[in-house]
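Sample pair:
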Amino acid sequence: MKISMRLLGPKRINRSWFVDLLLFLLLAVAGAFMAIPLVYLVNNAFKPLDELFLFPPKIFVRNPTLSNFPDLFHLMAKSWVPFSRYILNTVFITLIGTIGHVILASAAAYPLAKYKFRGSKTLFSMIVLSLMFSGQVTAIPNYMTMSWLGWIDTYWAVIVPAFAFPLGLYLMKQFIEQIPMPLIEAAKIDGASEYRIFWTIVMPLVKPAWYTLIILVFQILWGTDGNGFIYSEELKTMHYAMGQIIQGGIARAGVAAAVAFILMIVPLVIFVITQSQIIQTMATSGIKE
C-alpha cells in the first residue's frame, strides 16, 4: 500500500497575503503604541523649558537643544558631591552585582540541574517558593543581615543581596537541564574536572540564559537608589540624585528630563545588544540529546 508523499511532508499553512498584511499592520500599530512613552522621554531630554510645559503636551520636540545636559553637570558640580560620583557609584554597583549574580546563579544551578543529592528537591522547592515574595517583604531580614555583617552604608549592602535573586537561579537551572548528560560524562572520561566542564561546556551552552539574566539584573541595579542601606552622600546612586533634582521644582524640569534620559538609555542599549545575541545563540547553538 502506497502512501502519498504529500501526506508525509510538513503541513503548509494556507494563509492569504491579506491576512499576513493585516497581522503586520496590527503588530506595527501595537509596537508604535508601546514605543510612544520611550519616544516621549527621549524628546523631553532635548526640549527647552517652555516646550516641557506646553498643554496639550507635544510628543516631538520643535526646537531641540542640548542645554539640559550642560545644565545638569553645572548644577551637580555646585553640590557637595559631583554628578560624576553618582555615575561612578551606579556603574560600580551595577557591573559588580550583575557579574556576580550571573556567576553565582550559574554555579549553584549546575549541581541542582545535573546531580541528585539528598535535599536537592527540597532546596529547589524553596527557590521556587521564594519567587512569590517581593523585595519589600525581605527588606527587613536583608537589613538585619547586612547590619550583622557590618556592611550598612557600603556598596556591598546593595551588591550582595543582588547575588541572591532567586529568578536567576531558577532560570539557569531550567536551561542547564537541557544539556545532555552524555556530553558531560564524555568530558569526564576525557579527564575534565567539574570546574572545567562548567566553564568550557556548560556556560557556553547556556548563553541565552545568562544574557537574559544580564538584562534583568542590570535593569534592576541601574535603577536602584540604595535607600535604607546607603546613607553617605558620596555613595548614593544616580536614581537618588534624580529624585533630589526633581524636588527642586519647575526650574529644574529640563535637568530632570536629562537625568531620566541617562537612566533610560544605558539599559536600553544593553537590552538591544543582548537581545540580538540571545536570538543568534538560540539559533546556532541548540542541542538535543
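The CA atoms of residues 165 and 284 lie 29 Å apart.
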